[in-house]
Amino acid sequence: MKQQLLVIGAGFGGLWSALSAARLLDMHARQDVEITLLAPQAELRIRPRFYEPDVHSMYAPLDALFDAVGVRFVKGTAESIDARARRVGYRDEAGRPGELAYDRLVLASGSQLARPPVPGLKEHAFDVDQIESSARLERHLIALGNQPPSVARNTVVVAGGGFTGIETATGMPARLRAILGEDQDLRVIIVDRSKDIAATMGDGIRPSIIEASNDLGIEWIVDASVAAVDANGVTLADGRHIESQTVIWTVGFRASPLTEQLDAERDGQGRLHVDGNLKVHGIDHVFAAGDVARAATDDFGNYAAMSCQHAISLGRYAGNNAAADLLGVAPTMYRQPKYVTCLDLGAWGAVYTEGWDRQLKLVKAEAKELKTQINTVWIYPPAADRRAALAAADPLIPVA
C-alpha cells in the first residue's frame, strides 16, 4: 500500500509543494508514495492581480500539469484536520462529506481578508480578496456608468493604506475614467490608521508612493479609521462622513482558520510556527507552507510575508521536506534571504526595492515593466511538461 502525502490548497504554496514533492520522488525513482492535492478548484488563482480589471481571467488551470507530474487532484474544501488520526475531512462540490488519510500533510490553505465587526462592512463594502469578490467589484464599477453623475458615484474610498490598498487605489482613476469618461471629477481616497502616508511601506518607498498619489490625485486621510459603512459612504471614527457608492476594504489578512484545527502555536495572524524544515512545531507529520506558515527566512530575525514571493519558495521547501521525511532522506533547510518589493502605482508606474529595509532600485516605467513581467509571467505555473515542471520545483531555485 502506498504512503500518502496530502497537500491542502492549490494556491502558490500548495501547488509548489505538490510539484516539489513529485520532484523528490522522481529523483529517487520512488513509486510507493502517492501525492494528493485537495482544493476547491484545480486552478491557480493569481491573487496578486485581483486589484486589476478583467479579474475573471486571472487564473491558470492545473489539471494537465497535475496529470503530467503524477499528482492526484481531489476537488473539495477541507473542513477539519484530525492530527492524531492523520485524517482530513472535506466536502466535495455537491456538499457531500469525504475523508482523506495521510502519512504526511502539507497545509497550504492560504489566508483571507480580515473582516472585523464594523457596522455595514459585510453589507456595503467591496474587496479584492478573491476572484468572486473582485468580480463583484468590477460589475459594480461598470454599473456606475449607467448612473447619473454625483459625488457619491464618482468617489471611491479604499480602507487601508498597505500594499493591497495602495495598488487598488492607484489603479482606480484609470478604471473609473474608462467607465465614467475622461471629463468626470473623480475622487479616490485612502483611509489609513497610520499617522503618515504609507508609513508601513518604509522610508525607501514612501516618496514614490507620495509622488504617485499626488500625480494621480489620490487623497490620503491618515490617522483615521472607518467606524461604519452604509449605502451612501463611510463614517470615520471622528464622525466625518464621506459620500461614496464604492467602499473597498483592504485592512489586514489572517491565515486560514484550518490552522486552528491543530494543537500548535500560532502568531497574531494565525500562522503556524514552523522549524527550519517547515515542520509544524510539536507535530512531526505536518508541514506548513505559504500564508499559514510563520517561517524564518534568514538568521537576522526576518520572517516570510504573506506574499506569493514567499509562498512559492515555502511550497518548494515544504513539499520537498515532507517527501524527504517519508523517504528517509535529508531535508533541505528553508532559507530565503533575498526580499524584494514591486508595488504597482497605476498610470504613474511602479516602484521596486530590494532588502527588508526596501532600498530603492527602480521607479516609474522601468519598475512598471518589471511589475508587468512578474504579474503576467513569473508567478504563473509551469507548462504541463513533466521534466520542466519538476526542474522548476527545485527548492534551491531563487524566487526573487
UniProtKB/TrEMBL annotation:
Keyword Ribonucleoprotein carried by entry: no
Coiled coil: none
Family matches, as Pfam families: Pyr_redox_2
FAD/NAD(P)-binding domain mapped to chain residues: 4-312
InterPro entries: FAD/NAD-bd_sf, FAD/NAD-binding_dom, NDH-2
Family: Belongs to the NADH dehydrogenase family.
Species this protein is from: Pseudomonas atacamensis
KW Zinc (keyword) present: no
Keyword annotations: FAD, Flavoprotein, NAD, Oxidoreductase
Name of the protein this chain belongs to: FAD/NAD(P)-binding domain-containing protein
